[in-house]
Amino acid sequence: MGHQKEALINQLTELIDGVSGLPECRTVSKRMYSNLVRRVKLLSPLIEDLKDSDVEVGDDVVNGLELLRLSLNSALELLKSVNEGSKILQALQIDNISLRFLNVTEQIEDALSDIPYNKLDISEEVREQIELVHAQFKRAKGKMESPDVQLVRDLAMAQREQDPDPMIFKRLSEKLHLRTINDLKKESLAIHDMVISSGGDPEDCFEIIAFLLRKLKDCVMTENPEMDALEGDKTLIKHRSPVIPDDFRCPISLELMKDPVIVSTGQTYERSSIQKWLDAGHKTCPKTQQTLLHTALTPNYVLKSLIALWCENNGVELPKNQGTCRNKRSGAGGSDCDRAAINALLTKLANGNPEQQRAAAGELRLLAKRNADNRVCIAEAGAIPLLVELLSSSDSRTQEHAVTALLNLSINEGNKGTIVNAGAIPDIVDVLRNGSMEARENAAATLFSLSVVDENKVAIGAAGAIPALIDLLCVGTPRGKKDAATAIFNLSIYQGNKVRAVRAGIVPPLMRLLKDPGGGMMDEALAILAILASHQEGKAAISQSEPMPILVEVIRTGSPRNRENAAAILWSLCTGDVQNLKVTRDLGADEALKELSENGTDRAKRKAGSVLELLQQVDAVDS
């Protein structure tokens, strides 16, 4: 049974780390995605405690953990598909996606209900956190995400009307986060994956997707006419005319392309034609006249698939060798070319001038974000030590690219160790202290990603990250504050980092965030204070900030989660402290605590009941 438990714990750790390392979602599913990621992350302390426990467990515990493993595996697969899939397809199928999130939520809640926690060797703090997470899954169970009415209406009008209002596509561009040519190129890659994975028989709505993509591109080009020069990669259009579309012709030969490839400027050419151009000694892009950063040629699978579909639908003979390519999977057939492009970029990183290094780091940043295969290839090619060196670059943009590339690479579990072993933590902390705001935000996110590995929590804290994270929490953008708070919360699971955070002065800024409900950081502030209050130094520092009035007010009027955390903090502060109990009594907290003990979450009920018992003891002594 011991080996079975150990294997299960390792698998659960990998699944939670996989979810924790996922990038931010920028699709119509963002809210469902973010809620699920946040809740799954909070399961980490449970697995960590189980990993450290030597207590033998029975079949009922193993069965419960196996159900949790299966449900988390389903969650990871769903999250990956949402984050890497077509944004347009997601919008068209949002009801199905909402149902999938609902099903996964129910699976996890059922699994958590089957685990006999009374038989587990876990701390009280972890037990309370798991009860909180379980309550969140219970509340989410059976609640379908409300549809975006405007989005649904715009999609319907775009498909039905003969000549849709351009404002429809402007709104869709914003809602779907398809605002730039780069956004549209990434969307076309996602559509390519869909076409290829279907084995040449794509979704029934493919023509609608192609139509919307073309209209959105027209909208983006209208809003940004200066980007017209970058328009060459027209993988976004699918016609049904027997006349060969210009977008399917090579700009050099003007013939229908059979092996389209992309050069470093983003333009697409027939491989044989552009190769002849390069062999003649040219160093520029024929269409834009821009200097090529490298001469690697990357297959344009999107356009290749669209050409194949157009040929089939219009009775045109497929170009030679075209038919067989459509069964290839993304990242398989093009791996050699992708590797050649990556090696060329690494040469620029190592030996290029500052401008070339900046451009190469930027391209690696995008490649690492695109898919899992790229993250593995980039690391295997030796990019990580070179990117770590660029963290010290005097060029702010290069530094931003380098730290963000490392963030994207750290999504891969194996890359986390490589990044740390390359000595990155002190340099990332330095970027967190002194970089541009974007670099600081991404440095905070990188530290959070690395901190999912237990030993890294210690190293990150020892490198001085916590004071810098506190500074970002105070002065950052809303996104930067969220990144800083998430990192601080995760690091504070380690006791030594709780002390560091308290001694670095985290409590006053947390109290300021707590007193600013319009700032959007109350949830994070209460969650961090709750974990700090479990330590004696944290409890003392919080008590000195006179938190009782705001805590009582949150218990009266806050959200269920915030009321729960406020009650937990109040219980920690009042336990063994008569003065805090008297202040709480004088604030008239009894009524709010009684209501919470009857109607709150399980943890909130227990904490509120405990505080009420302490208040009754004080009343008895005073009387």
Automatic annotation (TrEMBL):
Keyword Magnesium: no
Gene3D superfamilies, A to Z: Adaptor protein Cbl, N-terminal domain, Leucine-rich Repeat Variant, Zinc/RING finger domain, C3HC4 (zinc finger)
EC number: 2.3.2.27
InterPro entries cross-referenced by the UniProt entry: Adaptor_Cbl_N_dom_sf, ARM-like, ARM-type_fold, ARM_PUB, Armadillo, PUB12-19-like_N, RING-Ubox_PUB, Ubox_domain
Keyword set, alphabetical order: Repeat, Transferase, Ubl conjugation pathway
Domain of life of the organism encoding this protein: Eukaryota
Domain U-box: 243-317
Pathway the protein acts in: Protein modification; protein ubiquitination
PROSITE patterns: ARM_REPEAT, U_BOX
Pfam families noted in UniProt: ARM_PUB, PUB10_N, U-box
Catalytic activity: S-ubiquitinyl-[E2 ubiquitin-conjugating enzyme]-L-cysteine + [acceptor protein]-L-lysine = [E2 ubiquitin-conjugating enzyme]-L-cysteine + N(6)-ubiquitinyl-[acceptor protein]-L-lysine
ARM repeat ranges, renumbered to this chain: 382-424, 423-465, 505-545
BP-aspect Gene Ontology terms: cell surface receptor signaling pathway; protein ubiquitination
UniProt enzyme class: transferase
CDD domains listed in its UniProt record: RING-Ubox_PUB
PANTHER family documented for this protein: U BOX DOMAIN-CONTAINING, U-BOX DOMAIN-CONTAINING PROTEIN 14
Its biological purpose: Functions as an E3 ubiquitin ligase.
Protein name from the UniProt record: RING-type E3 ubiquitin transferase
Organism in which the protein naturally occurs: Anisodus tanguticus
